[in-house]
Design goal:
Elements: E1 2-3, E2 22-23, E3 30-35, E4 39-46, E5 50-56, E6 60-64, E7 68-74, E8 82-85, E9 90-93, H1 97-102, E10 104-110, E11 116-123, E12 147-149, E13 153-160, E14 165-166, E15 175-179, E16 183-187, E17 192-195, E18 201-203, E19 209-211, E20 217-224
Parallel strand pairs: 2-5
Antiparallel strand pairs: 1-13, 3-4, 4-11, 5-10, 6-9, 6-11, 7-8, 7-10, 12-13, 13-20, 14-19, 15-18, 15-20, 16-17, 16-19
Length: 229
């Protein structure tokens, strides 16, 4: 088992509130994959020359599904700043309680010749990340080896060789699995996860996960912790 280093794309959280920005569920480029008491999970696909303007009221995380380049801008600013992104790149954006009350808005635009795709995870717990960050800090912090603690959740970038096992967390809780490659996983709880990038799987009760396939399996896993520090 190898935990790859998560890279963080620093995005501004000084995004201005905008009446014309849509909720993720109403923006046509976002497809709802999963919704429960912990998260709303969306797949974003932008074909060449497409853009999306969204409003968020919760802290959120994005996982890039393929190498590429994307324009990201704050509402009210010019959409000119390009960002190089890489497959598996994972970014957490923390919203303060004040920002959650008003919402933040911003846009994504794809002006390249191939699609831009990500998985966007909206954390419904308003305190996710609250215990981690210092005053004035707006992005999630990264700790080696390839995991970050959000306060209420732990995120890890995992690479499993065939037959290898990713252990269950010390505190039992639910888990969200976001494939970065084709995966064929088997959990100790009897759940089989055979899926591709662009989909997700929810494990209600945390358990060790084994790569049952013949190829290395890379995935992002979010382990929800029942007790906060």
């Amino acid at each position: 088992m190898k935990a790859a280093v998560l890279t963080t794309l620093l995005l501004s959280c000084s995004l201005a509130f905008a009446q014309d920005a849509a909720d993720l569920a109403a923006e046509p480029h976002y497809h709802l994959l999963l919704e429960n008491e912990q998260v709303r999970v969306f797949a974003l696909t932008l074909h060449p020359d497409e853009s999306a303007l969204v409003r968020l009221r919760r802290s959120f995380m994005t996982v890039v599904l393929q190498d590429g380049e994307i324009i990201i801008w704050d509402e009210g600013k010019s959409p000119i700043q390009h960002f190089q992104v890489h497959k598996g790149q994972t970014n957490f954006i923390w919203l303060t309680h004040e920002q959650q009350a008003t919402g933040i808005s911003g846009g994504f635009r794809n002006d390249r010749m191939k699609d831009y795709r990500n998985i966007t995870v909206e954390f419904l717990d308003p305190d996710i990340g609250w215990f981690l960050l210092n005053s004035g800090t707006t992005t999630g912090l990264l700790t080696a080896p390839g995991s970050m603690f959000l306060g209420g959740a732990i995120v890890a970038d995992v690479l499993l060789q065939p037959g290898d096992t990713f252990p269950s967390p010390p505190k039992p809780g639910a888990e969200l699995v976001i494939p970065v490659s084709e995966v064929d996983l088997k959990s100790a709880g009897g759940i089989r996860i055979h899926t591709s990038p662009g989909d997700v799987a929810w494990i209600p009760h945390s358990a060790a996960v084994t790569n049952a396939g013949r190829e290395p399996a890379r995935f992002i896993i979010v382990e929800f912790q029942p007790d906060k520090p």
